[in-house]
Design goal:
Number of strands: 10
Radius of gyration: 15 Å
Strand order of the largest sheet: 4-1-5-6-7-8
Largest sheet: 6 strands, mixed
Oligomer: single chain
Number of helices: 4
Structural class: alpha/beta
Distance between the termini: 33 Å
Length: 168
Amino acid sequence: MKITILTTGGTIDKTYDEYGGNLEIEGTNLDEILASLRLPDLFIRHVSVMRKDSLDMTEEDRGRILEAVRDALPTSDAVIVVHGTDTLGKTGDHLHAGLDALAIPVILTGAMRPYEFRDSDAQQNVTEALMAARLLPAGVYAVIHNRILSFPGVVKDRRAGEFRSASA
C-alpha cells in the first residue's frame, strides 16, 4: 500500500525550547513516530508542506494543502494530512469542498499534546490514521482519539478535549 503523509506543523511537531521557554515547530517528529511502528507492507512518502501552528494558517495555506493533496492523489492509495488540531476542522471542510470525485481516503489527524510530551496522543493518532487508510472508502475524514469523523462538519470541542460532528 502506498500512503502519502503531508505534514503541516501543529502541536504534534512542537518541541520545547529550553532557552526561550516556549514550544516551537523546528521540524517534524513524524519520522520518529513511524520508525517506532511495525509497517512491513507500507510504502510511505513524506512531504513537508509547511511548518505552522494551525492557529496561524491562512486561506492561502489551506490552498497549499489542497494542492499538495491533489498532487499526491495519482500516486497514493491514501493521503494523510498531519495538522494542528485547533483548525483541523476548517482545513478538512476546505479539502472536502475542493476535492471532487475522490477515489481514495484523505485523512486528517494531529495531536493535542506534542509528541515529545510523556502523555502525548501523537503516536496513537498517527497509528489510527494509518489503519484507517487501509479500511476507509474514498472521502475526507478526521481520525483522532479512536474516532473516525466524516467531513464536512467536524469540530473540536475544546471543553471536552475531543472532536465530534457538528450535527452531534
